[in-house]
Each structure stands twice: as structure tokens, then as C-alpha cells.
Design a protein that fits this description.
Phosphorylase Kinase, domain 1, five-stranded antiparallel beta sheet, alpha+beta, Aminoglycoside 3'-phosphotransferase, Chain: A, domain 2, binds 2-acetamido-2-deoxy-1-O-phosphono-alpha-D-glucopyranose, 2 domains, binds adenosine-5'-diphosphate, binds magnesium ion, three-stranded antiparallel beta sheet
């Protein structure tokens, strides 16, 4: 059976499968994630409106949803304990994702089309931002992601499954691009000539962190692996980065991949799919804010080599996402959600424009890193 199109009735039905109280009032699609189907639903609980998030996992991307949900449950449980140690006692449940169990106690429910659903408390009075407008936002988001990594540092890696095989290794991503360009199954290579040429010209970038890791200079840790800035909730009143979300790719990875994706998503003032490339560039003040925030919470466990490669990581993740969008464009838009023709090609172009801007400012950005001393580290 095919994936079911969403209707209020579908959301009511999903709600009945979870341990929710009260009456369904309304619900609909929510957020701008590229992968899962996310819905916000509102219930009336004895006169109070309470919201939840239902998510239908992307079955094309996540082949083993039960294992993925084991990870998510484990990470939620672990971070809930850690957060209790440092968060204000009257504001704990907004600082961690809270899974609502399905009727019967499982952390998810599988519908008759075979799709997996989960439900979280809706984190109120906070928001995610697709484009970052102030250095404070960048610093807070980076601090929150660094804090998240610090919390995961004490989680035993053995229990964590690899939810998407070869998710980051950029050389593999590059090989996949090559194969897609050679196969040209959708006759799209002709529309992406300059982008393919640019990707090939930057191929050496793909191997830098992998080689350092193979040489034992940078360790694998449990990382988030999808630290785009709209995967952290910032408090609407104080601006504080209160909760890291989107835990589907928490698994062993490199810390630098996480920092690099923040650089990719916070330094440009333009949207990821902006068509006016003159608007795409890396803002030094945002880079500095990211470095400050990340080093404040992760500075105590990063080694010298990691610290020395923060700028490279930004370039690499921007490149990696550029080649992923390009690959998906060439393959017929099978992975990322798209809303228009050539959407993935537009996204690829912004990534490559941002990479050029990062390259042009590389020396200045290194100076920024040198000038940001890791403050006395926060404890996880
Ligand atoms: P995707 O994997 O598709 O990116 P996310 O888990 O990032 O899915 O969710 C998509 C968006 O939904 C987020 O960017 C955020 O705005 C919103 N969201 C997700 N979980 C919650 C939550 N528990 N409370 C409030 N908003 C949420
Ligand atoms: C996806 O799920 P979302 O929208 O937060 C993708 C990331 C990409 C990002 C590009 C599981 O992130 O890896 O970097 O799009 N997530 C997955 O915007 O592939
Ligand atoms: Mg997301």
C-alpha cells in the first residue's frame, strides 16, 4: 500500500495510536525539514490546548526504522538525565525531546501502509530558524550543538546503530555523484555542466578529514550528523539554544562534520535554495559566533587537530551538501523533498557559491579561530 496522503482524519487516527489525552482539535503539516513528514496537532485537554508533533519517517532514507527508534529512545533517555543536572528545574521538558509512547508501550506505531510514526511533545515558546539573522542566534545554536555532543560523549557507542550507512564519508558521496553523472538516467547532465565541473575541481576536499581520521589524528565520536541550524530550537524570549532536535542520524561520526554543517547553514544570509547567488556569502561575524559557541561547550574535548580544521570542516560540509543536492538533481529528485523544478540544482548552486566565499576568506577565518580562546568549558 502506498504512503497515505495526509488528512485531518489520518492525523486523528495517528493520535489514537499514541498515549494522548483529550480531544483532537486540529492539525497539519509543519516545518521545513527535507526528509520526514512532520505534523503539528492540537488537543483539548480539559480546556487547555496542548500541541504534539507527529512524524512519519522517510522510508526511502531510513531502511531500519525499529533500530532508528531504538537510538532515538536511547538518546532521549540519556539526554533527559543529563539535562536534569544543569537545566533550571522549572524548565526541563522543553530541553529534551520527549517521546510519547504508542498504545501498548512501543516508542512508535506502524500504519497499514508500512510507515513508521512517532510522537513528541511540542516544544512551545521556541522556534527553529532556516536563516540566521544575528550572531547571538549562531552562537547559541552552536553552543547547544556542542553541549549535545558533550552529553553524548558518555553514552556507550556499542548500543548505537548506524541508521544510514555511509552517511557522511564525503569520498563515497563523491563516488555516488560520479556514478549519477555517468549514468545520466534523467538526461539532466546537460543542465548542470558548470556545477559538475566545479564539483570535480574540488574533489581533493572530500578526503581531508577522512585521511586525518584514518591517521588517528581525529577520533570518531557519537555525533548528531545533521546540525543544520533549523535542527535546534531557540527560546523565543531569551534566544537561548534550548533543545537539539532531529535525532535520526545520531551515530558515530566526526565532531567536525557537525561544526561544518553549522557553518554551511548559519554563515550565509540567503536561504539554502536562493536563486540570486549574489546574495550568498559567508558572514565572518556569524562564523566567529559559531566558533565561540561551539568552543564554549565542546572546546574541552576537541583536540588540537580538530580545532585546526574548523574552517576546513565548513568548506567540506558545504561541498558535501552541494554534491548531494547535485546527485539528487541528476537522479531525478528521489531523496530530498522538492517544491519546484530544478530545486535541488538551485540548492547545489547556493552551496557551491558559499564554498567559493569560504575559500576566498579562508585565511581571515583561520585568524578568527585563533582569536577565539575556548572559555572555561561548560560541563555537560
Ligand atoms: P526532518 O528530518 O524532516 O528535518 P525534523 O525533526 O527536523 O524533521 O522536524 C522538522 C521541523 O519540525 C523542525 O525543523 C522543527 O521546526 C519542527 N519540530 C520538530 N520537532 C519538534 C518539536 N518536538 N517541537 C516543536 N517543533 C518541532
Ligand atoms: C536533510 O532532515 P533535514 O532537513 O534536517 C538531510 C541532511 C542535509 C540537509 C540539507 C537525514 O536535513 O543530511 O544536510 O537536509 N538529512 C538527512 O539541507 O539526509
Ligand atoms: Mg530537520
Amino acid at each position: 500500500m502506498n504512503r497515505r496522503t495526509w488528512t485531518s482524519d489520518l492525523l486523528r487516527e495517528v493520535g489514537r495510536q499514541f498515549d494522548l489525552r483529550g480531544e483532537f482539535l486540529e492539525g497539519g503539516p509543519y516545518g521545513t525539514g527535507h526528509i520526514n513528514d512532520t505534523f503539528a496537532v492540537t488537543y483539548d485537554q480539559a480546556g487547555t490546548r496542548v500541541r504534539y508533533v507527529h512524524q512519519r519517517l522517510n522510508a526511502h532514507v531510513f531502511k531500519e526504522p525499529a533500530k532508528l527508534m531504538e537510538n532515538v529512545e536511547r538518546v532521549c533517555r540519556h539526554t533527559a538525565l543529563k539535562v536534569r543536572e544543569t537545566a533550571p528545574p522549572d524548565d526541563i521538558s522543553r530541553r529534551v525531546l520527549n517521546l510519547v509512547p504508542a498504545v501498548g508501550g512501543m516508542p512508535y506505531w506502524v500504519d497499514d501502509a508500512g510507515d513508521t510514526w512517532r510522537t513528541y511533545f511540542f516544544i512551545e515558546n521556541a522556534a527553529t530558524h532556516d536563516v540566521i539573522t544575528s550572531p547571538d542566534q549562531a552562537q547559541e545554536a552552536a553552543r547547544a550543538f556542542g553541549h549535545f555532543q558533550a552529553m553524548l560523549a558518555v553514552l556507550p557507542a556499542e548500543g548505537i546503530h548506524e541508521t544510514v550507512p555511509d552517511f557522511h564519508p564525503p569520498r563515497k558521496r563523491f563516488e555516488t555523484l560520479k556514478r549519477a553523472a555517468e549514468a545520466d538516467t534523467r538526461d539532466r547532465v546537460a543542465r548542470a555542466g558548470p556545477e559538475i565541473e566545479f564539483a570535480f575541481s574540488r574533489e581533493p576536499l572530500a578526503g581531508i578529514l577522512l585521511d586525518l581520521h584514518a591517521a588517528g589524528e581525529i577520533p570518531a565520536r557519537i555525533t548528531h550528523n545533521d546540525t543544520k541550524l533549523n535542527n535546534v530550537m531557540l527560546d523565543n524570549r531569551t534566544g537561548e539554544g534550548i533543545c537539539v532536535i532531529d535525532l535520526d542520524t545520531v551515530m558515530p561520526g566526526l565532531s567536525l562534520y557537525d561544526f561544518g554543517d553549522m557553518v554551511r547553514t548559519a554563515t550565509s544570509p540567503a536561504a539554502e535554495d536562493e536563486r540570486d547567488l549574489s546574495r550568498v556569502h559567508a558572514r565572518p561575524e556569524m562564523f566567529e559566533a559559531l566558533a565561540r559557541g561551539f568552543l564554549a561547550s565542546a572546546g574541552n574535548f576537541l583536540n588540537k587537530t580538530e580545532r585546526a580544521h574548523l574552517v576546513t570542516a565548513g568548506k567540506l560540509l558545504t561541498f558535501e551538501n552541494g554534491i548531494r543536492f547535485l546527485t539528487d538533481f541528476l537522479s531525478g529528485d528521489v531523496y530530498f523533498k522538492t517544491q519546484r523544478d530544478a530545486h535541488n540544482l538551485d540548492r547545489c548552486r547556493t552551496q557551491f557559491a558559499l564554498l567559493r566565499s569560504l575559500e576566498a576568506q579562508e585565511a581571515a577565518f583561520h585568524k578568527i579561530v585563533d582569536s577565539v580562546r575556548a572559555p572555561a568549558a561548560e560541563s555537560a
